[in-house]
Amino acid sequence: MTAHSGQPSRPAVPECHDDVCITCSDTAVEVTVVRLLGDGLALADAGQGEEEVSVALVEARAGDTILVHAREAIAIVGR
Question: Is 65:77 a contact under the CB 8 Å cutoff?
Answer without folding.
Answer: yes
